[in-house]
Amino acid sequence: MDSNEKKTQTTKNHTFWQSFCHAKDGLVALYQTERNFRKHTLAAILAIGIGVWLHLTMNQWLWLLLAIFLVFISEAVNTIVESIVDLLVGHQFDGLAKKAKDVAAAGVLMAAAFAVVVGLLILAPSIWNLLQK
Ligand SMILES: Nc1ncnc2c1ncn2[C@@H]1O[C@H](COP(=O)(O)OP(=O)(O)OP(=O)(O)O)[C@@H](O)[C@H]1O
In this predicted structure, what is the pLDDT of residue 3? Predict the structure, then answer.
């Protein structure tokens, strides 16, 4: 499949590699078009860096990674909802469009709040202990 064919493909993927490449395109699109996704990526890199510095336990890593991926996945769902709503109603105001977009945004907010709580519960005591030494 050449690159032009790839850009206009509307049929099913035939190989795992094709599926993987389209998933990668989705990730790139998320990063390039969604400002909040970029901010969350930066926050995740920072949290992982602090986690490495603090030598987190396996359990702490699992909670931190769960929180990070919940935020990423909710951002992806939010972007899907926004795109589908825009595709359906364009710039026309619609009550259901507003509800769909606001609820999708609420999903991101809940995931981000969970990540802040997990981050505080895991990182704050470890940083505090380190500063006491
Ligand atoms: N077609 C519409 N009809 C009604 N309300 C809409 C419509 N499009 C957007 N809105 C309202 O505007 C808000 C912002 O919509 P928009 O599509 O710009 O999201 P966004 O700024 O990309 O959101 P995010 O900050 O999650 O990336 C929505 O949460 C919704 O309340």
Answer: 59
Q: 108 near 78, Cβ under 8 Å?
A: yes
Fold classification of 15-132 (topology level): Helix Hairpins (1.10.287)
Give the tokens for residue 39.
């901010």
Question: Tokens 């709503």 sit at which residue?
Answer: 85
For the chain, the structural domain boundaries read 15-132
Is 102 annotated for ligand binding? yes
Q: Catalytic residue at 5?
A: no
Count Cβ atoms below 10 Å from residue 115 Cβ, excluding itself. 23
pTM: 0.88
Please identify, by atom number, the ligand 1 atom nearest to the C-alpha of residue 94: 3
89 CA closest ligand 1 atom index: 1
Ligand 1 atom 31, closest CA:
98
| pLDDT < 70 stretches in the chain | 1-6
